[in-house]
Amino acid sequence: MVAVMFALFGAYVLALPYAGFRVSTFAFVVAMQAALDPPRGMRRWAIVAIVALVATAGTYYTFDSYLQVLLPRGRWTDF
Q1: How would you write the pLDDT of the chain (79 residues) with one tens digit per residue?
Q2: pTM of the model
Q3: What is the Cα 28 distance to its own chain's centre?
């Protein structure tokens, strides 16, 4: 499990310059949740997506608005 977490984090770090903070973070949080406790059924996947969306939005607005830290926008998405 530790190796899987390191691999996911490595993929996240490599994806940041290309996909941007918001897209990469959302995908990372979904992948981490799915790796730790695989969802069974559409309701569980919806919960995973909602948690990832809230976590991504919360961290983005905290760092971007409150702390005024520039986050990667992404070459592919410019988002």
Answers
A1: 999 999 999 999 999 999 999 999 999 999 999 999 999 999 999 999 999 999 999 999 999 999 999 999 998 887 7
A2: 0.91
A3: 4
